[in-house]
Amino acid sequence: MIVSALLTSVGINTALCVLFFTLYSILRKQPSNYKVYIPRLLAEGASRTTPFNLKLLIPSPDWVAKAWSLTEEQLFSSSGLDALVFMRLITFSLKIFAFAGVIGIFVLLPVNCWGNQLQDIDILDFPGNSLDVFTISNVNSGSNWLWVHFFAVYAVSAFTCFQLHHEYKYIASKRISYFYSSKPQPHQFTVLVHSIPTSLSCSISDSVERFFKELYPSTYLSHVVIRRTNKIQALMSKSKNLYKRIAQLRANRTQQKYKHGGGVLGLFESKDSLIDHYGKKLEDIEEDVRLKQAEASLIAEEARAAFVFFKSRYAAATAFHLQPSVNPTQWITEPAPQPHDVYWPFFSESFMKQWISKLVVIVVCILFTILFLIPVVIVQGLTNLKQLEVLFPFLKSILAVKFVTQVITGYLPSLILQMSLKLVPPVMGFLSSIQGYISHSDIEMSASKKVQWFTVWNVFFATVFSGSVFHQVYIILDLKEITGQLAVAVPAQASFFITYVATTGWTSVSSELFQIIPLIVSLIKTPFTKQESEFEAPSMAYHRDLPRILFFGLLGISYFFLAPLILPFLLVYLCLAYIIYRNQFINVYTAKYETGGRFWPIVHDSMIFSLVLMQLIAVGSFALKKLSPASTWTLPLPVLTLTFNYYCRRRFLPIFTAYSAESLITKDREDENDSAMTEFYRQLLSVYKDPALFPIQHSSSSDSLVSPLLS
Amino acid sequence: MIVSALLTSVGINTALCVLFFTLYSILRKQPSNYKVYIPRLLAEGASRTTPFNLKLLIPSPDWVAKAWSLTEEQLFSSSGLDALVFMRLITFSLKIFAFAGVIGIFVLLPVNCWGNQLQDIDILDFPGNSLDVFTISNVNSGSNWLWVHFFAVYAVSAFTCFQLHHEYKYIASKRISYFYSSKPQPHQFTVLVHSIPTSLSCSISDSVERFFKELYPSTYLSHVVIRRTNKIQALMSKSKNLYKRIAQLRANRTQQKYKHGGGVLGLFESKDSLIDHYGKKLEDIEEDVRLKQAEASLIAEEARAAFVFFKSRYAAATAFHLQPSVNPTQWITEPAPQPHDVYWPFFSESFMKQWISKLVVIVVCILFTILFLIPVVIVQGLTNLKQLEVLFPFLKSILAVKFVTQVITGYLPSLILQMSLKLVPPVMGFLSSIQGYISHSDIEMSASKKVQWFTVWNVFFATVFSGSVFHQVYIILDLKEITGQLAVAVPAQASFFITYVATTGWTSVSSELFQIIPLIVSLIKTPFTKQESEFEAPSMAYHRDLPRILFFGLLGISYFFLAPLILPFLLVYLCLAYIIYRNQFINVYTAKYETGGRFWPIVHDSMIFSLVLMQLIAVGSFALKKLSPASTWTLPLPVLTLTFNYYCRRRFLPIFTAYSAESLITKDREDENDSAMTEFYRQLLSVYKDPALFPIQHSSSSDSLVSPLLS
């Protein structure tokens, strides 16, 4: 790729970013957009209207200042430890790439430009302004200047490991102090038991009671058996939809009445009868739900799972850590999730079905990964103009226009890729949800990992290896040649990934700020729903945003010594992300659950993977550049990095999987003399209740709308 | 290899076996060999002398009948669950290979002979009586007869998995019933804590007391801090050696006195002064030991580890399962080994040193594996006579003799391999002992795994791949070609491995029976040690015998459909092993420790590996034979096998890693009303004592020998 194409792409994206920022600065102040831009503040009770003012039409950057001035303590207290972990990932990446950026731009870039390898080879068709001049490809083979790259690799690896250790330690301490400062929470006293053996003589509930009372007579408190509610759930969602439709019809009628005075009576009547019809249907369904709910309390509807409550955190932890029954496939215990974090549909299916769906999910994941390659290959074709001309000869005249060429090579490829990648997080989230996790947080964590490996495989490896041949599986399976293959293929795609950062990266954060899709949805919906129906502020989709930032981290780490030019673009991206996500945490997202920082181990593992990949590329690159001592001396680096990772796993990971006996007992002792505990125990028994078993309640504000129709 | 070479080899080995059996039947009855052949019975108090009798010189097979009639209950009660597991491995293998043998000999062998692939190819230099006629190589390419092999592979895989499940279940139930029927044992109530943080203000002992009393006030009983005793250990072994030398000198003197009456007085005097000199030295050392032992009780000699005792098994298990401290690298708990199973030298080194030695052990293991290949390659060279003639032209005339040729190709190669393999178990045992395990049983389990993988790598893969080219690492790293490579290389070595079973296998069991090395040692020693010094019955070296049987299992499973001729030899081996090891458990070995059947998961994993390897070879073989549907339909088999293994890991493995809360609490409740528990608790505090801290005691019988010299 030539420099001007890159500049075109950067230009377009800078313009887009500025546009998005300006529009956001205006639109966010319009009361009609409050639901899109400050749903969190609205849910917390902010006023929904503001008197009209000229200022509302002038873009103002005050939100930047507000986001900037947010302290870590404020973020932690308002959005929880998970938001803090997310922001720490951004600052962590900023630190790493600032350090790598200084080395890259001021040391490696001049060294690269100084070489003349490419001029020697392509003396004839060397375009002069190719981006490759700035990459390691331009350093002469066997040149001692490569030792600079060698030391850079060591320095950045060491700095990253140091920072990783620092962050892990910091977040672990935050997690512990969060636990120490937390009030008694239901999930700390609860254990989920599943695979309860059935017996003919007594119900599940009785056998749970008997089993745990026998084992833990002094600490067992009570239990709640989970009911199979998939039918009720289906009915309830049906009734909800019907209710919405009635409300909509009703609203339309009022609107039209208001508009036309009292005319066109026939139309109203038909609408009235429709509302009447739906109303009756709704009544039937609700009756059905009530019947089914009553049935659910019968023994036949008991699932083979239960929440078991204990008198202390320590007792619950013991029940979870020790295998309860002699048969390890029965009475399986898991720590319970927070009550509002429970993924209830999980329990409705039988365990055999869950086991099968787990297998199916694995197969589907693999298929999805394979099929997804097709658009990526097409995208890769677009970056190669000559191929395109051969495939579609009629494009020749259009491709002759310089600007079109630059747009196609510089901008379009990553845009198409980005669009198709948008599909991945929801798909992976869905796949994880049928895989058998018991909580929303587990589902998001699992989806994060899936999305992350999907991206590494389908964006990184597919781009790197399909640029030359479309057989990355074979290449990766050939372990003895892998470093050499990487060293050849990875630098060749440097310009693509630089553009990728400037397009996908920059636009993804600015569209995050601008909330395009919610905005469009809101614009379409508003005319129909005049009434202020109740709404929930959205929660952060970590499985969408976390893997994206991690992937840019991977690109930065693996390309910093190959093509240091990527680093400035990455730093701009991270700065934008820093401000924008802080703003979103203030205004948009609420915390749906609190994992206590359990996302950090995912981040850590991903960074270690990036480091090792970069080091393997370095081994291959130095060998390719015929500086074999450097190649040999780089070999200890992945070993050292993996040893460091092994240490971190032993030192920090246990803190994230379970709390220690010391902290559990300390907290329990604190509560011992607390008189509020009796009340807490009383409440504990009722918090884990399947929402499908609550009586149907439509929002109170609009209830009055329908009631007269139905009565 | 030709059939006559195989027959020569089998002939030699049959003769050797008969010789060993006959000699054993005579020698075992001589009182002078009791120490070699019935040490266990001696240690249990059998009489050491028998009146001379002519019967003693006639070989009798009564021991075979005795070994045959031993029931499983008798074996279990006399030698423990580990011996039972070992014998179950042999009967399990017998079952598998009897089943495979019936299919192999009566179905596959005729099919193989029926083909004429080899005649077609090597019409000119086909020797006619080559063993290859009996292998799959002789089946015609693309022949539908290969479907017979296909179904055989499925049948044997299914039968093996069925048997594996059955055995795992049986041994798991044995383990649980062993636990339920066991008396209170010290290690059930004990936890080993290491990495105790040091503090300036108080001793290790005090901080252990404080920490556990704080955490578990109601169940904590007491503790014993471990002392650094490496210096004392060194001194003690020095004193022991010195003592032995004195005893020897003294014995010689008495003998000579007896022989020569009172003559050659000068010689006696010099000996006397030598004894005197050594005696004084011994006295000095013993004084030193006493001093050091007194010092060991000081705070400065405390190691950062302790045994902590609890009032119940459940409390100890809880302390082990829950991470005790907030910092996961401090106060690390492990279940304690049995008191006589503790590997005390472990505690003497600092934990940093242990960490380094762990890394060193890994490196040494790799180096050992690489260097070991050299003799294996030489051995491989010997099987190829033409190579040998080229290398050593002077051998030509010798190699012309037919018998020499047959000995060299049929017998010598495996003998050399076997001799060098004898070194491996002790080396691996030593390496495991410095790797940081706290008990002899853990060391043996780790060494078993090491020896096993070493054998698979250095005997199986090295033979299979160095037969063609010496680069198995490269071949195995090339994952995409691996099944094809295996399918080419593995059948080519069929004749080598058939001979291997008949030589290494048969001679190894008969030399196990004959106890060659202990016999030789005893023959050399006897003249010098007339006095009956105390001795211990040896214990079974599982890390030597278990991997050997597992390796024969691997050979049997992977070759059964390629070269069914291997199965009769294997069955003979297993029958011999069945009788001989039973005999050895009755007469020779005592149980040093009881792991409760924890060796079985190693057996299970090894069998699964063998199955998957065989299935991959099958995939490659069918592809190579141009019957691709069979190759494709074999592919699900490894997936199914691994799924089965995954199920077994979930269903049975947890039973072998820890006891369930249910069983622990049941056992604790049984003891609650037992009055003997107070006495047990009292004893508990003194059983974990480093032998280096016991006062020096030489065997009482010979103590009188030295005392007059020293006084």
TrEMBL record, chains A, B:
Keywords: Calcium, Coiled coil, Ion channel, Ion transport, Membrane, Transmembrane, Transmembrane helix, Transport. Residues 232-302 form a coiled coil. It is a multi-pass membrane protein. Residues 358-622 form the CSC1/OSCA1-like 7TM region domain. GO terms for molecular function: calcium-activated cation channel activity. This is CSC1-like protein At1g69450. The keyword Phosphoprotein does not apply. Its main location: membrane. It comes from Pisum sativum. Residues 188-345 form the CSC1/OSCA1-like cytosolic domain. The chain crosses the membrane at residues 6-27, 85-109, 145-165, 359-378, 454-476, 482-501, 549-581, 602-624, 630-648. It comes from the Eukaryota. Belongs to the CSC1 (TC 1.A.17) family. One of its GO terms (cellular component) is plasma membrane. It is found in: Membrane. Residues 5-167 form the CSC1/OSCA1-like N-terminal transmembrane domain. Pfam families: PHM7_cyt, RSN1_7TM, RSN1_TM.
